[in-house]
Amino acid sequence: MTQLHVEISGNGPDLVLLHGWAMHSGVWDNVAAPLSQHFRLHRIDLPGHGSSRACALTSLEQMVEQVIQHLPADCIVCGWSLGGQVAMRLAMQLPERIQQLVLVASTPCFVKRTDWAWGMEVATLNLFMKNLAHDYVQTLNRFLTLQVRGGEDQTRVLAQLRKSVLNDVPPEATTLQAGLKILQTSDLRAELKQIKQPVLLIHGQNDAIVPVEAAKWMQQQFSQAQLKLFSHCGHAPFFSFPEQFVSCFDVI
């Protein structure tokens, strides 16, 4: 099996960072230096993304299994968006190894359902999937724009996101479609109570992709959870407010 790309830096407790859909480990660059003063960082490129492009992406379970091969013996796992779903699965499967979770702009259920109002419209996600096949770069640009919506200084944050994502070789269209399929079908709500580890939730008040109500709901499901809300912030709090983001880790 092809190995995932991992960048390791810093000293301290092991902290694994998992990026979101269509991204790569470089998205953590804004916060890596200050975090590495307190933690040993493991920045992983998920299957099909970044320098792990040779690894096919097929399912959430496959992502989890490949990430497990690169986990330290005991660690904290921080996941953003899709990476948050991977982090939750890891905590369920490896309760003895995952000491704590940090879930950034994450949700157990990405799309709206009859009993879940705090997700993306199914039609919106379907349109993203359709447009990927016709205009790959423009669809990625639209997704990046959606990430900063509702946040402060959107022009600056969007420019940083574009530089980080589009300056790297983006994932193949098949990888992006597979990732959207995971987001379309994954629903971890019924399993969340399996997670007994402490959980830190970090969420933008104005997140246009994952409504803040999803984070508030998750806080009630976990036995040990703290919720840090960022005002005037969208889907990428560590881009919008890097210093505030790093300060959240003081409680760990």
From TrEMBL:
<feature type="active site" description="Nucleophile">
    <location>
        <position position="81"/>
    </location>
</feature>
<dbReference type="InterPro" id="IPR050266">
    <property type="entry name" value="AB_hydrolase_sf"/>
</dbReference>
<feature type="active site">
    <location>
        <position position="235"/>
    </location>
</feature>
<comment type="subunit">
    <text>Monomer.</text>
</comment>
<comment type="pathway">
    <text>Cofactor biosynthesis; biotin biosynthesis.</text>
</comment>
<keyword id="KW-0719">Serine esterase</keyword>
<dbReference type="InterPro" id="IPR029058">
    <property type="entry name" value="AB_hydrolase_fold"/>
</dbReference>
<dbReference type="GO" id="GO:0009102">
    <property type="term" value="P:biotin biosynthetic process"/>
</dbReference>
<feature type="binding site">
    <location>
        <position position="235"/>
    </location>
    <ligand>
        <name>substrate</name>
    </ligand>
</feature>
<dbReference type="InterPro" id="IPR010076">
    <property type="entry name" value="BioH"/>
</dbReference>
<feature type="binding site">
    <location>
        <begin position="81"/>
        <end position="82"/>
    </location>
    <ligand>
        <name>substrate</name>
    </ligand>
</feature>
<feature type="active site">
    <location>
        <position position="207"/>
    </location>
</feature>
<keyword id="KW-0378">Hydrolase</keyword>
<dbReference type="GO" id="GO:0005737">
    <property type="term" value="C:cytoplasm"/>
</dbReference>
<feature type="binding site">
    <location>
        <begin position="143"/>
        <end position="147"/>
    </location>
    <ligand>
        <name>substrate</name>
    </ligand>
</feature>
<comment type="function">
    <text>The physiological role of BioH is to remove the methyl group introduced by BioC when the pimeloyl moiety is complete. It allows to synthesize pimeloyl-ACP via the fatty acid synthetic pathway through the hydrolysis of the ester bonds of pimeloyl-ACP esters.</text>
</comment>
<dbReference type="GO" id="GO:0016020">
    <property type="term" value="C:membrane"/>
</dbReference>
<keyword id="KW-0093">Biotin biosynthesis</keyword>
<keyword id="KW-0963">Cytoplasm</keyword>
<comment type="similarity">
    <text>Belongs to the AB hydrolase superfamily. Carboxylesterase BioH family.</text>
</comment>
<protein>
    <recommendedName>
        <fullName>Pimeloyl-[acyl-carrier protein] methyl ester esterase</fullName>
        <ecNumber>3.1.1.85</ecNumber>
    </recommendedName>
</protein>
<dbReference type="GO" id="GO:0090499">
    <property type="term" value="F:pimelyl-[acyl-carrier protein] methyl ester esterase activity"/>
</dbReference>
<feature type="binding site">
    <location>
        <position position="21"/>
    </location>
    <ligand>
        <name>substrate</name>
    </ligand>
</feature>
<dbReference type="InterPro" id="IPR000073">
    <property type="entry name" value="AB_hydrolase_1"/>
</dbReference>
<dbReference type="Pfam" id="PF00561">
    <property type="entry name" value="Abhydrolase_1"/>
</dbReference>
<feature type="domain" description="AB hydrolase-1">
    <location>
        <begin position="15"/>
        <end position="240"/>
    </location>
</feature>
